[in-house]
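FORM 7B: Structural annotation worksheet

SECTION A. Query
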Amino acid sequence: MLIRSFGTLAACSAGLVLAGLLATGCATTAHTERDARALLQQKSAGAEAPRDALTQYSTALDKFGTLLELYRQSGKTLYVQTRNISDATGLSHPLVGSELPHDITEMMRSAINRIGERVVYVPFQPEYVLAHAQQGANLSLTLPDVLITGAITQFDRALASAGRANDADVTFGGGRGETDAAFERKATSTLSDLTLDLNLVDFEKQVMLPKMQAANTIRVLNETFEQSFDFAIYGSGFGVYGSTKYLQGRHGALRLLVELSVLELLGRYTATPYWRCVPNGKADRVVLATLEKRYLAQDQATKVKWLKDTLNDYGFALKENGVLDEKTKRALDEVVRHFGFERSQDYLDAKLFVNLYVNIPLQRPKPGAENKS
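SECTION B. Predicted structure
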């Protein structure tokens, strides 16, 4: 009789505990769903409709197109083509989890096509062209000036990782009513590096252009929050496991990396101060060296003409000839004083000219407007 009462009491206790667990489990599942929805809403910033896949370098490419109109006043169009830009790390293979996209050529095309009329992408689709030619279509082909080659060359997974964890384990109830309860909470942050290499090839000569390359790395953040509660009676388990992840998607990181690299690569080739398109951008020494070399290769009359043309972009009205007259000297003195450029005793100093050239006002302030005639 005593044993039967104990068994009934144990059964009742187990039933109450299991019912409580079911209620707790449902509540935890609901909380997990709520957290996931909140996270999704936070990431989408309340945007439910489709939106442009833009990054901070997408707008920089638009600005670069405007910059080319200022610095390439000849109006010559640059025709660009790419080879397939793919993954060279092997991590895009399904056997290793397809951690990276196998081909990012379309991202490259979108980035190049965003720049504007001064840079035109030339697709390479021989099968398509041949099929239409066989049907009688009269097609004209445009050959590119340069060819972009490259690949995803590095993916260092979990380069650095940090985390915290709290857990508790309690055993209570002796004999047949022994019960185990456990709680665990864990948060981790992991950093990984992605690298993209691009090179520029002279299409006509089929040689790589020296120093016309971009090798950039982006750091990807992966934050994970995990919380679990497990309860077991007589070896029969019931658990709820919640995991909330915020992952800076590798595809999104690669798009940003592609746009930055295209900006750098074509900025170097056109010898344009492309860093002005990016907030807090630093001057590219390759571009500065190219401009200085081109300037030093000219005779004195051409140097003076280039100097006058640049000063006119600052708001002056100088006759663009090879004469270094007093009006030109006064204009140069005024610009140097107004913008705080480093002064040289030589009015035709190469570094001074390059400094003037890469800092031409985009909004065209006119420090020498009063000197116009």
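SECTION C. Observations
Residues 1-28, 231-247, 367-373 have pLDDT under 50 and may be disordered. The two ends are 118 Å apart (CA to CA).

SECTION D. Sign-off
Analyst initials: ____
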